[in-house]
Amino acid sequence: MALYSEKVMEHFRNPRNVGVIEDANGIGEVGNAKCGDIMKMYLKIEDDIIQDVKFETFGCGSAIASSSMATELIKGKPVAEAEKLTNQAVAEALDGLPAYKMHCSVLAEEAIHAALEDWRSKKEP
Amino acid sequence: MNRLIYADNAATTKMSEAALNTMISVARENYGNPSSLYSIGQRAKETLEEARAAVAEIIGAKSGEILFTSGGSEADNQAIRSAAEIGRKAGKKHIVSSAFEHHAVLHTLEKLKKEGFEITLLDVHENGIVCPEEVEAAIREDTCLVTVMYANNEIGTIQPIREIGSICRKHGILFHTDAVQAVGHIPINVVEDQVDLLSASAHKFHGPKGVGFLYARKGIRLTNLIEGGAQESGKRAGTENVPGIAAMATALKEAAERMEEHAAKASKRRDRLIQGLGAIPHSALNGDAEQRLPGNVNFCFEGIEGESLLLLLDDKGIEASSGSACTSGSLDPSHVLLAIGRVHDVAHGSLRLSIEADLTEEETDYIIRSVTEVVEYLRSFSPIWRDLESGKKPHIL
Lengths: 125, 397
Hints:
The complex is a heterodimer of chains A (125) and B (397). Chain A has helices at 6-13, 61-74, 79-82, 87-93, 102-123; strands at residues 26-32, 37-46, 49-58. Chain A has 125 residues and is α+β, with helices and mostly antiparallel strands. Chain A has one domain (6-119): Sufe protein. Chain: A (Alpha-Beta Complex), CATH 3.90.1010. In chain A, a hairpin with a 2-residue loop joins β2 and β3. With 397 residues, chain B is α/β, with parallel strands linked by helices. Chain B is built from 13 helices and twelve strands. Chain B has helices at residues 17-29, 39-59, 72-89, 103-114, 132-138, 161-171, 242-278, 306-315, 325-328, 335-339, 344-347, 361-380, 383-389, and strands at residues 5-6, 66-69, 94-98, 118-122, 143-147, 174-178, 197-201, 212-216, 283-285, 296-301, 318-319, 350-354. Chain B has a seven-stranded mixed sheet, with helices on both faces. Chain B has a three-stranded antiparallel sheet with strand order 9-10-12. In chain B, β3, α4 and β4 (118-122) form a beta-alpha-beta unit. The A-B interface holds A 9, 12-13, 15, 18-20, 29, 33-40, 55-61, 63-64, 100-101 and B 303-308, 311-312, 315, 324-326, 329, 331, 333, 344-345, 348, 381-386.
């Protein structure tokens, strides 16, 4: 049996929304290099809609795939919906992750929430 | 691209045709139990003893000093347990080893620690080599064993075994070496090296998996790990794996015959790889460049993680390994890389290529090109790399 599902490998090989948004109004970074995973999410939110999202990730195959899938799940969605994103939703959309890789989907959830938090803190002075 | 470059020979090797043929023919035709007294049993016994003699000769030992095991881990366990038992009886409960031993050694030592032994793990320095003077300095009145690997399994550095052997002999202390990565690859002579106990594994030199041996110098009393019948002079119960053992002997004979030629070829490719991968910005070779196994290349690349590197190399037909946490199934990267002073951030981005002599020049260049491309690609969206390049964090490598 392969380590990862085909979906994970597909997102790992062709990650969606990779890169930086120069004029992002919400940025979240989670994880640390010591543990081997860092995710950084950039959000461009207008009228409470996630107009654009991009990510940068240092990490293993499932970390990159989880970041990619998380961005797909929230792109174009209202903030209220993005706030409800869970790691389970990310993992399920990837047709599952090995048990010891579930933390990658948790990081993706946390990175999105951190970016939303950043946006909120900037919005409300 | 439909190519396959297997570059993980330190993990395991492909069985040689000759070894495979031996294994099949012995299993098919020579199926007797070596402990039976009728003809086919005795024929199996002969095959077993021929294999023992062949293995012994290659490492400079006597037949009676070779004990067949299920592999390197078992041999390591039995060697260390035996020396500890001898020490315990003499009231000596201190063992000297190194920080980057294989887990078969380190975990056995951890268990002994719980049983009241004191363990000194020597520094392996930035170059990944144990210093003989530090071995001598670590020896105490109550030291019963020194165990230092012949060559490291991750970074391939060859240890000064002969010097350590001579020190141990001078002090009358048992010396064990885990030679799993060395046997069949570099010349070993247990007499000249003054080694008392040595572990080896067949599948690292193109023999089958599940077979290995322990050399124990005559007169060293071994402690059983497995109780039962009187096989292996009563020191390792269980009907012998005759086909596997015979195949191991075939593989080792072949490896010994071709050693010089193979080592020369492999080290030429190794040096080309080291040069080519060293040209990647912010990369570093792990372990001494000279004193290393002919086929071992191990690098750290800043700003990337090893598992993604391996997966993308696999897509390009290159099969290698890494010391990143994600490939070890734990949160910590390789203890070997940490032992030579690599920090966590960098240790996660490691790559081990363990090549064979048959790697072509074209394949060598393909590996260099591919690794360069993949590292560059992964860095292109690594937040760590961004911080390093923007000067937010200083480069380590």
